[in-house]
Each structure stands twice: as C-alpha cells, then as structure tokens.
Amino acid sequence: MKRIATAVLSLCLSLSAWAGAWGEGSFDNDDALDWVEVCAQAAGPEVVSEALQSALKSEMIEAPDGSVAVAAAEVIAAARGKASPALPAQLQAWLDKQPKEKIAALAPQASEALERVKDPTVSELRQLWSEGKASPWLARIAELEARLRR
Predict the structure, then answer these.
(1) Quick one: CA dihedral 37, 117, 20, 85, positive or negative?
(2) Are 21 and 63 in contact (CB under 8 A)?
(3) What was the pLDDT predicted at 132?
(4) What is the pLDDT of residues 38-63, one digit of tens each?
(5) DSSP-H helix ranges across 16-133
(6) How many Å apart are CA 71 and CA 82, to the nearest integer?
(7) Which of 33, 39, 116, 132 is 20 to 30 A removed from 73 (C-alpha atoms)?
C-alpha cells in the first residue's frame, strides 16, 4: 500500500510543476486562466503587450508572470493565424474584435519573452518545471515559438 501511495504522489508531482498547474499546456494553470479573464475584458490590445513586459524587463521572472507571458504569446500566435487548439473561446472572441495586425506585430517581443521564460537562471517558472518533468513543457514552448515564427 505504501508503494501505491508513493507512486500516486510521484505521479501527481510530475503532472504539475507547482500548485495551480495541472498540465504543461499554456493555459493549464491558474495564473494563465486569471489573465485570460483580464484579457477578455480589456478594451484594447495593450493588455497583451503589458503581459510580456515583466518577462522582458524583470531581473528574475516570477512564475505567475512567466505563465502570463506564455498565455500572451499564445494570443499573438493566434493573431498571426496560428492559434493553439487550446486557445480559450473567450480569448478568440476578444481577439476577433481587436486589430490583429497590431497584436501580431508583437511576435518578436513574445519570442524574446519566451526565451527568458525558458532560462532557468532568470525564470522561476522554468526552475519549477525543472523540479518536475520539464521536457513536455519545453516541447510545448518550442511548438509555440515555431507558431510565432511562421
């Protein structure tokens, strides 16, 4: 019984790198979903640029800011016509009312933010994923980066 409990605990720990995350997807955490609500209620596209700023300017990127930067990068990819199937419907509805060209033009900043979010020397989110299983998370980030480049 002790082995089963240990195996279950190990599985649970490997599924998420920190409390509030249930998977490695861009929207599989509370911080990203909280930002989705903020974004969906925003009047304009500035909310996307603002979401990248902590990842771009902070000496050390805290995990919530990293998660929000990843979610913002997903919106930028969607504005470029490369939306993730996991993009929340409310974000797509919001994006449909926004100037997509202005959001799509943020792709270089999003790519730079993702580079920093992946760097364990400056990203708490990356450090947390290193405690769990980083490979699936890094693969998702690489896929997002590819969608930003296309």
Answers:
(1) positive
(2) no
(3) 76
(4) 999 999 999 999 999 999 999 999 99
(5) 30-41, 46-57, 63-79, 89-95, 100-104, 107-118, 124-131
(6) 14
(7) 132
